[in-house]
Specification:
about 40 residues; 1 helix; elongated
Length: about 40
């Protein structure tokens, strides 16, 4: 049981770090499975 809680804690920490990185980047994400072209130069 303790090992499971540690694993959940690690996963939660990783997701929290990913969410904070996404907030810092503030880049729009392309939808998955669609080809997009950036024509801005």
């Amino acid at each position: 049981m303790l090992e499971t809680n540690i694993q959940f804690s690690d996963i939660y920490q990783a997701l929290t770090e990913m969410a904070s990185q996404n907030e810092q980047n503030k880049k729009p994400l392309n939808p998955v499975g669609y080809l997009t072209y950036n024509n801005q130069k």
